[in-house]
């Protein structure tokens, strides 16, 4: 099935002051659109045009770098937009999620510190993740467009630490961007939805 650029479920101003209209317009309308356009072209050339984005990601990993990079970034961004909402973030988590974070990650405060640290310490471009692997939550980081799907895990929350995700608003202060993401942007309801699918 062809890749399609999803509409945002909020307007371009909705995430201010934590993410500006300018960032969303460039990131969604230009960067994500390029992954969709390039991914469609490369998937068709590789005979994978009829597969789901998840299947393209898994089948192209380690075999077709150009296709993998675009397909993985498309997958990552489909969810990235949904992992944020106006008045999101903070430590009021749905019960099932809170319970899993307590038992698997040592509680919310430790999760917050470890997740932010994963994003801060990802050298260059990449992502920080909260995933379900073997029935347990884990925090990880990946370079470029790589994601937990190719490491036997199901991502339920991810944050983009490519510079285009934060440079307009935070310049080189990646830690401040990550703090704002966790404290003010995370859509915990969508994280719960993905957690329930993964579990």
TrEMBL record:
<dbReference type="GO" id="GO:0004784">
    <property type="term" value="F:superoxide dismutase activity"/>
</dbReference>
<comment type="similarity">
    <text>Belongs to the iron/manganese superoxide dismutase family.</text>
</comment>
<dbReference type="Pfam" id="PF02777">
    <property type="entry name" value="Sod_Fe_C"/>
</dbReference>
<keyword id="KW-0560">Oxidoreductase</keyword>
<keyword id="KW-0479">Metal-binding</keyword>
<dbReference type="InterPro" id="IPR001189">
    <property type="entry name" value="Mn/Fe_SOD"/>
</dbReference>
<dbReference type="Pfam" id="PF00081">
    <property type="entry name" value="Sod_Fe_N"/>
</dbReference>
<protein>
    <recommendedName>
        <fullName>Superoxide dismutase</fullName>
        <ecNumber>1.15.1.1</ecNumber>
    </recommendedName>
</protein>
<dbReference type="InterPro" id="IPR019832">
    <property type="entry name" value="Mn/Fe_SOD_C"/>
</dbReference>
<dbReference type="InterPro" id="IPR019831">
    <property type="entry name" value="Mn/Fe_SOD_N"/>
</dbReference>
<dbReference type="InterPro" id="IPR019833">
    <property type="entry name" value="Mn/Fe_SOD_BS"/>
</dbReference>
<feature type="domain" description="Manganese/iron superoxide dismutase C-terminal">
    <location>
        <begin position="95"/>
        <end position="192"/>
    </location>
</feature>
<dbReference type="InterPro" id="IPR036324">
    <property type="entry name" value="Mn/Fe_SOD_N_sf"/>
</dbReference>
<feature type="domain" description="Manganese/iron superoxide dismutase N-terminal">
    <location>
        <begin position="3"/>
        <end position="84"/>
    </location>
</feature>
<dbReference type="InterPro" id="IPR036314">
    <property type="entry name" value="SOD_C_sf"/>
</dbReference>
<comment type="function">
    <text>Destroys radicals which are normally produced within the cells and which are toxic to biological systems.</text>
</comment>
């Amino acid at each position: 099935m062809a890749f399609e650029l999803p509409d945002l479920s909020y307007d371009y101003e909705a995430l201010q002051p934590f993410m500006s209209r300018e960032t969303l317009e460039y990131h969604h309308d230009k960067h994500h659109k390029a992954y969709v356009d390039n991914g469609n072209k490369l998937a068709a050339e590789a005979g994978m045009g009829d597969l789901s984005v998840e299947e393209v990601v898994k089948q192209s990993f380690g075999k077709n770098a150009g296709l993998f990079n675009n397909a993985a970034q498309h997958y990552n961004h489909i969810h990235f937009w949904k992992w944020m909402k106006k008045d999101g973030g903070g430590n009021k988590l749905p019960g099932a999620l809170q319970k899993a974070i307590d038992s698997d990650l040592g509680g919310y405060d430790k999760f917050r510190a470890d997740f932010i640290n994963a994003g801060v310490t990802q050298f260059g471009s990449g992502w920080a993740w909260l995933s379900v692997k073997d029935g347990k939550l884990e925090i990880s980081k990946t370079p470029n467009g790589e994601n937990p799907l190719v490491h036997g895990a199901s991502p339920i929350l991810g944050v983009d630490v490519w510079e285009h995700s934060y440079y307009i608003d935070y310049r080189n202060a990646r830690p401040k961007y990550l703090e704002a993401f966790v404290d003010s942007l995370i859509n915990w309801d969508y994280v719960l939805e993905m957690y329930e699918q993964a579990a």
